[in-house]
């Protein structure tokens, strides 16, 4: 089982990293995990040039290794803090660069865009209470749909401002991961 993590926090050892580690701990032992750190390996943002509408490829090649990892993955995990109700900018740049898969699907008419189906999870952290992940959830569902990825589950750690791990997260992780058995 190949697992790709799109990691959106600037630091691996803060809340988002802690939530991700708790999630990875519950994955089957045979899982092979690769992490893509959006802050330390930023992609050039999409400028809407339209090249992918013609070639199905981006004119920028800085995402080539990531696209290979994505296409080979069985499980896709988006682990991100919420910044102003959305993704942090380098994560949003990665998401926008997925436009090439939208073009492959809807302009060039290829379905599925990626042969290997995937199971996808969303992990978020946010400083405040309440549903801060609403926008990110909708964005993530949208790009999962063009990546042949089934949205399996979501775990949101809210109110990280109080700094304490919430034990209820463990059972929410377990419940989300049960989707891998289906
Ligand atoms: C630029 C910025 C914007 C933020 N926007 C929100 C927000 O809209 N809602 C919220 O609840 N928390 C917001 N936060 C708080 C972070 O989501 C929260 O601290 C999160 O746990 C950070 O993840 P990390 O510990 O992995 O860095 C924001 C933080 C920053 C730095």
TrEMBL record:
InterPro entries: Flavoprotein-like_sf, FMN_Rdtase-like_dom, ISF_SsuE-like
Domain NADPH-dependent FMN reductase-like: 1-154
Gene3D superfamilies found in the cross-reference section: 3.40.50.360
UniProt key word Secreted: no
Domain of life of the organism encoding this protein: Bacteria
Recorded GO MF terms: oxidoreductase activity
Sorted UniProt keywords: Flavoprotein, FMN
PANTHER family reported in the protein's UniProt record: IRON-SULFUR FLAVOPROTEIN (PTHR43278:SF2), NAD(P)H-DEPENDENT FMN-CONTAINING OXIDOREDUCTASE YWQN-RELATED (PTHR43278)
Protein name per Swiss-Prot or TrEMBL: FMN reductase
UniProt organism field: Solibaculum mannosilyticum
């Amino acid at each position: 089982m190949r697992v790709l993590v799109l990691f959106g926090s600037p630091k691996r050892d803060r809340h988002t990293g802690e939530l991700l580690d708790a999630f990875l701990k519950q994955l089957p032992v045979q899982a092979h995990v690769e992490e893509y750190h959006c802050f330390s390996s930023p992609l050039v943002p999409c400028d809407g040039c339209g090249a992918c509408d013609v070639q199905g490829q981006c004119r920028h090649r800085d995402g080539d290794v990531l696209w290979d990892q994505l296409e080979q993955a069985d499980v896709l995990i988006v682990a991100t803090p919420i910044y102003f109700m959305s993704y942090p900018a380098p994560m949003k740049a990665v998401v926008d660069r997925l436009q090439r898969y939208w073009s492959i699907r809807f302009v060039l008419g290829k379905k599925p865009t990626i042969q290997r189906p995937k199971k996808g999870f969303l992990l978020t952290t946010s400083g405040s209470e309440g549903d801060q992940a609403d926008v990110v959830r909708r964005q993530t569902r949208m790009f999962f749909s063009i990546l042949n990825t089934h949205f399996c589950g979501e775990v949101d750690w809210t109110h990280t401002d109080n700094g304490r791990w919430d034990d209820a997260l463990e059972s929410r992780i377990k419940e989300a991961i049960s989707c891998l058995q289906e």
